[in-house]
Design goal:
The protein is of the alpha+beta class. The chain has one domain (about 45-265, about 275-335): polyphosphate kinase like. The protein is about 40% helix and about 20% strand. The chain has helices spanning about 45-65, 70-100, 110-145, 155-170, 235-240, 240-245, 275-285, 300-310, 330-335, and strands at about 10, 20-25, 35-40, 180, 195-200, 210-215, 220-225, 230, 250-260, 290-295, 320. Strand 7 and strand 8 (about 230) form a beta hairpin. The longest helix is centred in the middle third of the chain and has 33 residues, at about 110-145.
Length: about 350
Amino acid sequence: MPGLYPLGHRRDVSRPGLIGHHREVTTTGSQASTEVTPLPAERFLDRESSWLAFNERVLELAEDPAIPLLERARFLAIFSSNLDEFFMVRVAGLKRRMATGIAVKSASGQQPRAVLGNIWDQTRKLVDRQSDCFHHQVVAGLLDEGIEIPRWADLTIDEADATTELFRTEIFPVLTPLAVDPAHPFPYISGLSLNLAVVVRNPASEAELFARVKVPPLLPRFLPVSPNRFVPLEDVIAAHLQDLFPGMDILQHHTFRVTRNEDVEVEEDDAENLLDALERELTRRRFGPPVRLEVEDTIEPYVLDLLMRELQVTQDEVFSVQGPLDLSGLQAIAALPREDLKFPT
């Protein structure tokens, strides 16, 4: 079945993907011929910008005060998950093509490096809007409805005591702090994992060490500390770092998160080797290079420099935002049994 194109336009079959404007040209004594004039590049959007525009519409739903409050929290979570996928696949694929020299101009006529620069600029603006929406709209609105997301310092004494007991019985046993020193290189940071960068000091030698603590992904992102009050899991771990580093002085700690290249590229021509190729690609993508580093905006510059150096990311790939990071965990808050704060069913 032939494709459908805008009235007055046709596809140039000699140039796949190109749509042009056509007009009939008639000459004396000859049949009518068709002249195809390609549309100007500014009439096109590259697919990365188009995708970001789609995710912006998701964010606009979170910003819309007419949307029920828990649904707005859900849209914030969806926005985060979408952005993770975008960087793991679209941005990673673009960077890989640039590195191998096979990247070409986008449909809008932009060079790949310009497309990447636009991605970074647009993403920063969107992430800033998401953070503002979370802190000044959704969190404030939830508070009015009796649902709170406090930080550790805001807990009552009873809540802190109960959470400390929970830490010692449920959280501490699954934590594995890893220090970096001449005998222990910088650890591998898995993609999308939430981590604490910790700086400790040995009081005997005055030597400072960097350590990494991974936030367990199987535990709730927001821990209930009392009915309708939920504290970020990384806050609970940070409040008990002394238990993880006994005898050491805790100088500072910062949350960070890495997104890695998880794009899968498999040559499908050889069906016999397709399964082997897919297995190799899935193994490779687990250790794919970082394409984004998220940090809280309170991070010390020298700690950020260390992360950038060890993870081999550039300043352009660093996204500094007001915490907490990774708002995809808001799905649990959105699932609370408050039907008055959801779309009617």
